[in-house]
């Protein structure tokens, strides 16, 4: 379409609708919400958005509403929803949707957005939100009114009484009729209630009940709107709705003329958006096809009925990924609690792929651990690969992750010494099985407290194998891209990319010291330095029991605690060859008669300045990491934390924490 024709079409549309006698699609903007999370530059998000809006346009043209999802391989999935209010004519519906469609792109490249016009609603998000009735974080009220507010005294009381009566009436009527829509008026007040068609009748009732309560807060304004996730409610002292559904278009002119103009406007919006996007984004579409090769390779083996779950089954099991079922969040996606048709409770990991790398991690995790069974490894029950997004199904562990017990400031349950020791031993046994007990050697690469889950008996289970790698028996090491979490990565791996099972041993040693001390390794304190510095200084002064978490008081065996900490120091030695294997660690933990060797100094410490408080910061873990990352071209940031005194806390970004590629 030529630019002059596009401009002419837009001008013609607004001039045609300038007369109320011809057109009233109620396109006044009541609210626009743009999500705070933005799509990565390489996610091909814009083309997916355009495709989604095109599909919704057709559904609105056919039915006045619709839901649709797009999941282009290699991109982030988009779920869309559009609905016109029931009293709009079909022509006005098309015009209202076209208006919302031209305004919503203001939010791009946000991963989520919703716009409320006075005649229709449009939303997109990166998860299936269709059954949501309310959203405490984003539900809003719009109290703006060109008619101003009521005066005082009798007028105000009369308005408040009338508004309350009319709002209650339309809310009840919308639910009772079962259609989720109602209008009504009385004593100079008019109201409209509209629930989305994807929300159940019960959900409609809950949504409108909340809307009535909140929109009353707009009084004494003569107009107010409640903008909820599952419904819209409006009152005004001016009649704004159509009494009937407006199926006839006689009062608005020709349906054909309106539909054509709406279609042209929608097409114009797509073209405008297309021209606003860099041409480079679209050239990447050809690369997306490469991601399908993984699907072709894995699909035959994953179609077994015992392992492959239907997407619809998992969707229903999680109540359509209801936010109330969410039990965890990571950079690769979210984890939801699900209940299968047979009553079995599971954890469903919902993966969001924004590049080829995440796809590789998914298939890596499925291929590596689908056949592994060990009491200290989270069991993968199955997966779903044929729906709009990929899902992994794990056994459900009610106690969630270890870090919540160790580091949450409001500790509901403090682990005693025996529980901590059993968690350390169980984690060691799980790693020993991966390294030497399974048919192939597997290196986890991301051992940390948040990747150790606990069952109802506090038995530890290692989770998240997305970064795991096979290690051939004939190889001394793997040269690979650096991946893991800063503070837990072994020095030889972080600086040279040389991966062996001793990298897991180092990570385990750091985790052991965190469990015993109740302190995160990535926190640097001015008075004592990093966790490794603190423990090493206590070891040199023969006061290791001071490294034990103060929450335990004196309720722990001092000799055993010192022995366990010394094993942790053995695991974190700078030289990989000096570290024990995980099998040796299990033997030392299980048998108190085995002598624990004298450990050498951990890495990242300045031996010449250990006794100088003023010099400790100059060669801290963070300093070493900073220098190492400069060598491999990775940046990172620091943030101040005051949660436990004055100290510097290092918080890696997702790109550093989970997949730092050299």
Structure notes:
The protein has four domains: 1-130 and 253-283, 2-Layer Sandwich (Killer Toxin P4, Chain A); 139-247, 2-Layer Sandwich (Killer Toxin P4, Chain A), CATH 3.30.430; 286-396, Phosphorylase Kinase, domain 1; 476-657, Transferase(Phosphotransferase) domain 1 (Transferase(Phosphotransferase), domain 1). The chain has 20 helices and 24 strands. It is an alpha+beta fold and 662 residues long. It is 37% helix and 17% strand. Strand 23 (638-641) and strand 24 form a beta hairpin. The radius of gyration is 30 Å and the shape is elongated.
Keywords:
alpha+beta, Phosphorylase Kinase, domain 1, 4 domains, 37% helix, elongated, disordered N terminus, disordered C terminus
List the uncertain runs: 1-16, 18-22, 246-256, 275-305, 605-662
Kindly report the average pLDDT value. Answer: 78
Task: Say which CATH homologous superfamily of the largest domain is assigned.
Answer: Transferase(Phosphotransferase) domain 1
Name the CATH architecture of the largest domain. Orthogonal Bundle
The helical percent reads: 25-40%
CATH topology of the largest domain: Transferase(Phosphotransferase), domain 1
Span between termini: 45 Å
Subunit organisation of the chains: single chain
Biggest sheet: strands, sense, closure? 5 strands, antiparallel
Radius of gyration: 30 Å
The structure class reads alpha+beta
Could you name the CATH class of the largest domain?
Answer: Mainly Alpha
How many helix segments?
20
């Amino acid at each position: 379409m030529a630019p002059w024709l596009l401009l002419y079409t837009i001008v013609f549309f607004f001039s045609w609708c300038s007369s109320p006698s011809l057109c009233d699609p109620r396109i006044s903007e009541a609210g626009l919400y743009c999500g705070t999370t933005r799509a990565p530059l390489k996610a091909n998000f814009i083309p997916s958005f355009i495709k989604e809006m095109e599909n919704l346009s057709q559904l609105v043209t056919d039915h006045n509403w619709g839901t649709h999802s797009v999941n282009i391989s290699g991109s982030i999935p988009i779920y869309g929803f559009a609905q016109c209010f029931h009293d709009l004519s079909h022509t006005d519906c098309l015009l209202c949707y076209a208006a919302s469609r031209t305004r919503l792109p203001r939010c791009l490249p946000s991963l989520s957005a919703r716009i409320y016009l006075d005649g229709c609603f449009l939303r997109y998000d990166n998860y299936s939100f269709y059954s949501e009735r309310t959203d405490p974080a984003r539900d809003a009220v719009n109290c703006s009114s060109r008619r101003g507010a009521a005066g005082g005294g009798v007028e105000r009381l009369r308005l408040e009484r009338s508004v309350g009566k009319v709002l209650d009436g339309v809310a009840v009527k919308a639910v009772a009729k079962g259609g989720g829509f109602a209008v009504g008026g009385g004593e100079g007040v008019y109201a409209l209630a509209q629930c989305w068609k994807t929300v159940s009748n019960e959900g409609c009732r809950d949504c409108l009940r909340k809307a009535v309560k909140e929109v009353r807060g707009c009084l004494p304004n003569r107009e107010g709107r409640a903008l909820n996730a599952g419904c819209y409610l409006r009152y005004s002292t001016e009649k704004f709705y159509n009494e009937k559904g407006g199926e006839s278009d006689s009062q608005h002119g020709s349906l054909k003329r309106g539909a054509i103009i709406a279609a042209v406007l929608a097409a114009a919006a797509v073209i405008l958006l297309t021209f606003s996007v860099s041409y480079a984004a679209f050239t990447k579409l050809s690369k997306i096809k490469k991601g399908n090769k993984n699907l072709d390779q894995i699909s035959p083996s994953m179609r077994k009925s015992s392992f492959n779950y239907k997407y619809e089954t998992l969707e229903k099991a999680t109540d359509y990924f209801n936010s109330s079922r969410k039990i965890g969040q990571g950079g690769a996606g979210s984890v939801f609690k699900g209940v299968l048709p047979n009553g079995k409770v599971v954890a469903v990991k919902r993966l969001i792929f924004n590049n080829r790398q995440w796809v590789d991690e998914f298939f890596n995790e499925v291929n590596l651990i689908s056949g592994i069974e060990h009491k200290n490894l989270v069991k993968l029950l199955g997966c779903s690969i044929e729906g709009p997004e990929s899902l992994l199904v794990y056994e459900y562990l009610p106690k969630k992750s270890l870090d919540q017990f160790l580091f949450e400031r409001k500790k509901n349950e403090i682990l005693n010494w025996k529980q901590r020791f059993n968690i350390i031993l169980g984690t060691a046994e799980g790693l020993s099985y991966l390294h030497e007990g399974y048919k192939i050697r597997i290196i986890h690469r991301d051992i940390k407290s948040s990747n150790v889950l606990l069952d109802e008996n506090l038995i530890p289970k290692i989770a998240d194998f997305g970064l795991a790698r096979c290690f051939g028996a004939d190889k001394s090491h793997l040269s690979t891209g650096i991946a893991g979490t800063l503070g837990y990565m072994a020095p030889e791996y972080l600086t040279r990319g040389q991966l062996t099972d001793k990298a897991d041993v180092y990570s385990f040693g750091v985790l052991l010291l965190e469990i015993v001390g109740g302190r995160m390794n990535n926190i640097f304190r001015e008075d004592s330095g990093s966790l490794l510095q603190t423990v090493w200084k206590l070891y040199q002064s023969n006061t290791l029991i001071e490294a034990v978490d103060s929450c335990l008081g004196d309720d722990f065996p001092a000799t055993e605690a010192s022995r366990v900490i010394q094993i942790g120091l053995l695991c974190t030695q700078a030289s990989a060859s000096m570290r024990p294997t995980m099998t040796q660690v299990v033997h030392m933990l299980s048998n108190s008669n085995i002598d624990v060797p004298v450990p050498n100094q951990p890495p990242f410490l300045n031996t010449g300045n250990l006794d100088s408080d003023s010099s400790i910061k100059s060669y801290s873990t963070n300093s070493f990491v900073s220098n190492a990352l400069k060598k491999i071209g990775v940046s990172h940031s620091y943030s101040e934390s005051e949660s436990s005194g004055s100290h510097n806390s290092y918080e890696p970004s997702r790109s550093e924490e989970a997949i730092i590629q050299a």
